[in-house]
Write a structure and sequence with these properties.
Layout lengths: L15 H19 L14 E5 L1 H4 E2 L1 H10 L1 H10 L6 E2 L3 H17 L7 E7 L6 H10 L6 E4 L14 E6 L2 H9 L4 E5 L12 E5 L9 H9 L1 H10 L11 H15 L9 E7 L3 H14 L6 E4 L6 H7 L3 E4 L2 H9 L4 E3 L22
Parallel strand pairs: 1-4, 1-6, 4-5, 6-7, 8-9, 8-11, 9-10, 11-12
Antiparallel strand pairs: 2-3, 7-12
GO cellular component, one term: cytosol
GO molecular function, one term: 5'-nucleotidase activity
Protein name: 5'-nucleotidase, cytosolic IA
Length: 365
């Protein structure tokens, strides 16, 4: 062969193609493992079940709250910036949010094109500069939270309707009351006194009945006339549905998602389970509660009528991700037994409302 003359292309030897294929597959797998995982596209708010969560509900911010209270907002912001690469520890709403995302994964497997999923929005009155630490924390725990609302010290409540919020959870009781007054389902969430393991594959939500799912009509009868008159009233009105309470719409949204699993023959494997946990007596006043749910086209998977017994021991067995009640007595009892409990400030059982203005900034942004 003369210098510079092009070489004849060589025929690949036997087995060369088959040898190259596994190497290519190995290289592709290695690259895919290095590449960041693509997160699902966020649904349109009007198509989804929107859960708005405050930063202090999602994460533990006790030290930051102390700095804000004792040293003011400037020192608070400075501290957050200095520690922005340190993820926050999980807060009381964290297991609930993880359970919502587990349900979303199942829904997307069954309905890849549907936007009828949970959409989690972080709603906080933090300043935008603090957002970097929140984003870093969300990415650290691999949470799918793409929508943020950071209002720089102002109340975020006015934005909740724009996000089509189905439920708002916060550690700030005044903001929760503000949301309830605006007709938005909301609750103040509390950390349990001790940690109890909850399901990683099934979302479990427990509701009180009166002044949570239902109106406070019956509680008003008890308060004004006593239990005997209440029992008489419920018997007479057994077939008259109660008016709706603040969280009826959230139960309705959960029921809608449950039916998507039922339609695929997965009722027994449904990753959402709901509970009615009420102080009502079954024989004396339970029928009206169940018939009210039926009249709405709703149901809970389990109904527990405790006839005034403490709710904490039953909740310890259920191990819900969250339990909603309108009475702090029951919230505290649930906390003691390791349940994440949320107070719904609605109805006659609440303490008298403030009649004088309060200082706007009473908690860390």
């Amino acid at each position: 062969m003369e210098p510079g003359e092009p070489r004849e292309p060589r025929e690949p030897g036997p087995g060369a193609g088959t040898a190259a294929a596994p190497r290519w597959e190995e290289a592709k797998t290695f690259h895919d493992n290095l590449a960041p995982k693509k997160k699902p596209k966020s649904p349109k708010p009007q198509n989804a079940v929107t859960i708005a969560v405050s930063s202090r509900a999602l994460f533990r911010m006790d030290e930051e709250q102390r700095i804000y209270t004792e040293q003011g907002v400037e020192e608070y912001v400075r501290y957050q910036l200095e520690h922005e690469n340190e993820p926050f520890s999980p807060g009381p709403a964290f297991p609930f949010v993880k359970a919502l995302e587990a349900v979303n994964r199942r829904l997307r497997e069954l309905y890849p094109e549907s936007e009828d999923v949970f959409d989690i929005v972080l709603v906080t009155n933090n300043h935008a500069q603090v957002g970097v630490r929140l984003i870093n924390s969300i990415n650290h725990y691999d949470l799918t939270i793409e929508r943020f609302c950071m209002t720089g010290g102002n109340s975020p409540i006015c934005y909740l309707k724009a996000y089509h919020t189905n439920l708002y959870l916060s550690a700030d009781a005044e903001k929760v009351q503000e949301a309830i007054d605006e007709g938005i389902a909301a609750a103040t969430i509390f950390s349990p006194s001790r940690d109890v393991a909850v399901s990683q594959s099934q979302l479990r939500v427990a509701f009180d009945g009166d002044a949570v799912l239902f109106s406070d009509e019956s509680e008003r009868i008890v308060k004004a006339h006593g239990l005997d008159r209440f029992f008489e009233h419920e018997k007479v009105h057994e077939n008259k549905p109660l008016a709706q309470g603040p969280l009826k719409g959230f139960l309705e949204a959960l029921g809608r998602l449950q039916k998507k699993f039922y339609s695929k023959g997965l009722r027994l494997e449904c990753p959402i389970r709901t509970y009615l946990v009420t102080a009502r007596s079954a024989a004396s006043s339970g029928a009206r509660a169940l018939k009210t749910l039926r009249s709405w086209g709703l149901e809970t998977d389990e109904a527990l009528f405790l006839a005034g017994a403490p709710k904490g021991p039953l909740l310890e067995k259920i191990r819900p991700h969250i339990f909603f009640d309108d009475q702090m007595f029951h919230v505290a009892g649930a906390q003691e037994m390791g349940t994440v409990a949320a107070h719904v400030p609605y109805g006659v059982a609440q303490t008298p409302r403030r009649t004088t203005p309060t200082k706007q900034a009473t908690s860390a942004p």
